[in-house]
Description:
Helix content is 29%, strand content 27%. By secondary structure, it is α+β, with helices and mostly antiparallel strands. The strands form three sheets. Strands 6-10-11-16-15-14-13-12 form an eight-stranded mixed beta sheet, sandwiched between helices. A hairpin with a 2-residue loop joins strand 2 and strand 3.
Amino acid sequence: MRxxxxxxxxxxxxxxxxxxxxxxxxxxxxxxxxxxxxxxxIQVTIPKKKASEAVLASAKKVSRESVVRISGTIKGMxxxxxxxxxxxxxFEIINLAETPLPLDVSEKVSAELDTRLDARFLxxxxxxxxxxxxxxxxxxxxxxxxxxxEGFISITTPKVVAAATEGGxxxxxxxxxxxxxxxxxxxxxxxxxxxxxxxxxxCEIGPIFRAEEHNTTKHLNExxxxxxxxxxxxxxxxxxxxxxxxxxxxxxxKRSCSDQLANLECTDFVVPKTPFTRLPYRDAIEIAQxxxxxSIRFGDDISAAAEHAIGDEMGSHYFITDWPxxxxxxxxxxxxxxxxxxxxxxxxxPRMELSSGAQRIHQYDLLVRQIQKKGLNPDSFEFYLRxxxxxxxxxxxWGLGADRLIMTMLGLSNxxxxxxxxxxxxxxxx
Length: 430
């Protein structure tokens, strides 16, 4: 029976392994093969004078990244990966890989990101790359577990919709029989509708689509969003949920992914501490004015350069709160004593924005007025507005970018490194 490579020890005695040929070294009387599966690497040593003809024939024929099945005796070997080696009795080539390879899986020869993404199936065989997605899997497990323990109901909302979430033109139109439809920008409208349904606490992890013509290291046109909506909560309460989620996710990754973090050389992996600083928008603008060379005024959106200047000043995760109502979505609740400011927030990593949220407007008349102020037609949002006429509780929520969360957590240079098959302005395959 096949044994995972990480589980193979000298105490195992005799074992059978399956995996890819990671490296080959021929030293005359000895041939060394590093065999890799998803759990690790083991050295297979062939003493040519003692090995069978069948083993020698396969060893001579096999190419790097071929799939093999090998059985043999396990011995302790201090200099070998994992402190053990296998001396084979059998050496079967299951599938012979073509040469040359599109990229070097052993990472002795570096490859550009585009080359890696073009051959992503091969790229993810690299232990460092595989570690990113093993950590991402662990992080998503931690997120789901957190929601379950906090009493959230997991929902699935439509990705093909009739109207834009926030208006505007950043939409992917699609032909939907005899109608025009769009790929959804966000589950925002639907998770708010579920507050009228009495669910009180909902969450969703799913794709969102934005037709933004950005070609940067932090933007994608298809992304994964982690969303919540909570009834009878204000913006402060959902900010607390968000910062606790971030901390619990970091803690779980640190606890369960030590090998993967070591593979990525994340030796300074630090779990953030709560509470995160609440920085009013007005104060954030003042920091940007002092620390950034860009001209920025109250009422402007915060540019990437301003984000970096503020992030350098803050040094860790923080919230920007109390945004001008004019530059936030129509559903953000204005303050009663100053309607020019709303109960909206962004969660920031020093490098970039991770999440956006707010307490929402739950009064029908006010919501209609805010939609009109944005130059939108309330008739286009009738399906969304209708629940507000039949008993909508106060509520708040946020959306968190899963891809950016992993990117910043692991210090990756490009968000595409945190996504298996990224979609941007130029990439539609594989």
